[in-house]
Amino acid sequence: MDRTAVADARIPADHPFSRHLRRAADAEATVTHRAWRPDDGPLPALYVSHGAPPLFEDEPWMTQLHDWARAIPRPRAILVVSAHWESAPIAVTSAAADTPLVYDFGGFHPMYYEMAYATPDASALAAQVAALLPPAEPLTERPRGLDHGAWVPLKVMYPRADIPVLQLSLPSQDPERLLALGARLRALRDEGVLVIGSGFMTHGLPYVDWQHPDRVPGWSAEFDAWAAEALATGDVDELVHFATRAPGLRYAHPSVEHFTPLFVTVGAASDPTAPVTTTIDGYMVGLSKRSFQTA
To answer: Residue 239 is part of which domain span?
Structure first.
């Protein structure tokens, strides 16, 4: 067994993630996940509300993510822009195979710090990304692994860890700059690369009512409804001006890094003003899990 499978085998059989792995294996045994072909046209670009280790304990959410992944042809490679790596100048994680993970979370069961996601060499993807950036913004490679904004959702969506994955840093919080970055990455979709912006549609962790985790606070519901409307109508201008127009922003995003990867996803769309397709909605501890794809 490879390192990912060895680590997965140590998870208790009755753990929700172990059950998810068995369901995923059964699905693959029943119908093989078809690989992307050029005649499929461009893959969609995704915005994923990613969760942290609690995602591995939420079976309905894991099923939604895995079903979403299987509804899309299996990508040749995956490029993720995560809320958890803000860095300029722009850079990518190590392209080497089996790059160690970043366990950038605290206070969870020790098993989550022993998980593995040993992906193949991503050097070819790194070269593709570098070729799309302007000479004034040369791409550098950092000796850094995938953080939980990348590996946690991907471990649920593509549990076999058999697709090359790179993480691209979030170089700015400026919506216009991130839309332009997404536009540069758009060509990757034509090559079978899945471009993912990874964040959380509302992320007001300091304001979560942990005594009543099933309650959805007004600021979370209002921000989510505002974003859903703007995305459904392709109102990029409204999204760009979120700092002055989004209701509940102070609470929904005390810092905005979990929202702004959305602009990379929208920028990578064939038509950023086209309505998106919502794939997941609802809430976890009152925070919106809204996720979507663009054509």
So the answer is: 3-294
Q: Tell me how far apart the alpha carbons of residues 152 and 158 are, in angstroms, rounded to a whole number.
A: 10
Q: What is the largest CA-CA distance in the chain?
A: 52
* Nearest CA among 74, 245, 81 for reference residue 161: 74
| Whether pTM exceeds 0.90 | yes
Q: What is the pLDDT at residue 51?
A: 85
Query: Closest Cα to residue 163, out of 190, 127, 124?
Result: 124
Q: Contact, 77 vs 164, CB < 8 A?
A: yes
What is the per-residue pLDDT for 1?
64
How far is the CA of 167 from the CAs of 43, 125, 251, 287, in angstroms? 18, 10, 28, 24
H helix runs in the chain, sequence order: 3-9, 16-30, 59-71, 123-132, 148-157, 175-189, 218-232, 236-240, 242-245, 249-252, 261-267
Cβ-contact 198, 150 below 8 angstroms: yes
Evaluate the CA torsion angle 236, 202, 284, 215 in order and state its sign: negative
Position 136 pLDDT exceeds 90 = no
Determine contact, residues 35/277, Cβ cutoff 8 Å. no
pLDDT band at 240 (very low <50, low <70, confident <90, very high): very high
Give the CATH number, domain containing residue 222. 3.40.830.10
CA distances from 208 to 132, 267, 287 (A): 40, 31, 8
Domain count, the chain: 1
For residue 248, name the pLDDT band (cuts at 50, 70, 90): very high
